[in-house]
Amino acid sequence: MNKLIHLIKGLSLVSVAMFFTYSCSKDSDTPKEEDQLTQSELKTILETDGAASSVDTVLAEIYMNDGSSAKEPNDCYTSDYTENGFIVVFENCVLNGTDNVNGTLTVTYAAEGQTASFTANFEGFYVGDVALNGTRTYSFSGNETEGSYSFSVTSDMTATMGDDSTITENGTKTFGFNIGETLETSTFSLAGEWTLQANGNIYSVDVTETLEGNLSCGYLTDGILAVNKNGLEVSVDFGEGSCEDIATIIYPNGATEDVSMKD
Questions:
Q1: Which residue ranges make up each domain of the chain?
Q2: Do 45 and 16 contact (CB within 8 A), yes or no?
């Protein structure tokens, strides 16, 4: 189960990153910049989750160890199990190449059937110079017979950046993975709905059609993402299954903008 959690989380983060690190190719009818959802704003949509997610895999491992004596990597954090969960203390941890992670997380959990869940409370927790406050609730479920697994994160978080600006995120993202007989039939997905407030703007994000990809292709190949920025509604269409690096942004006036998902 630990390896599957690693795999689900890793593939899911890769699929999201593929979308948010594109280079733009604009049509002549694309709205002027103030009426657009810019590349930097799309990156902002993931910044809070990006900082907090650096500890997600560690928390999942501690949860799955459940008091076992498994060695903690780098000896940079310690965990103490309680009746209702566990407490983990990070001291200058470098996780997945992130900036140093410091602080204490109090975690409570519950499990039922093939679904497991726990909630981590962030209070004055630091990833580099980013301070995180709030909660993240994690849920795992899977069907080994069918080879399908999912990992959901519900956030109610505020990230305070080094320049004292803040990003607030509320909502749920669900990452899925299905093991097929071939790379083409082994798929990953992203669904969910969340809201962010940053730089005086409010962004409502909704995966209206589940974003999907498969392990034989380096890009998302299906699904539609809707973003509402202060009333400006934009949708991003990832296609209908073909392995292409192009997604299409559709604006309210009907103008379209093709973007490449290549680095």
A1: 2-260
A2: no
Question: Mean pLDDT, the chain, as a whole number?
Answer: 80
Dihedral sign (CA 246, 233, 47, 165): positive
In the block, tokens 């699929």 appear at 15
Which of these, 147, 184, 153, lies nearest to 170 by C-alpha position? 153
Residue 73 · residue 90 · CB < 8 Å: no
Which residue ranges in the chain fall short of pLDDT 70? Answer: 1-35, 38-40, 42-43, 45-48, 66-74, 111-115, 263
Tokens of 22: 């594109």
Please state the pTM of the whole predicted model: 0.76
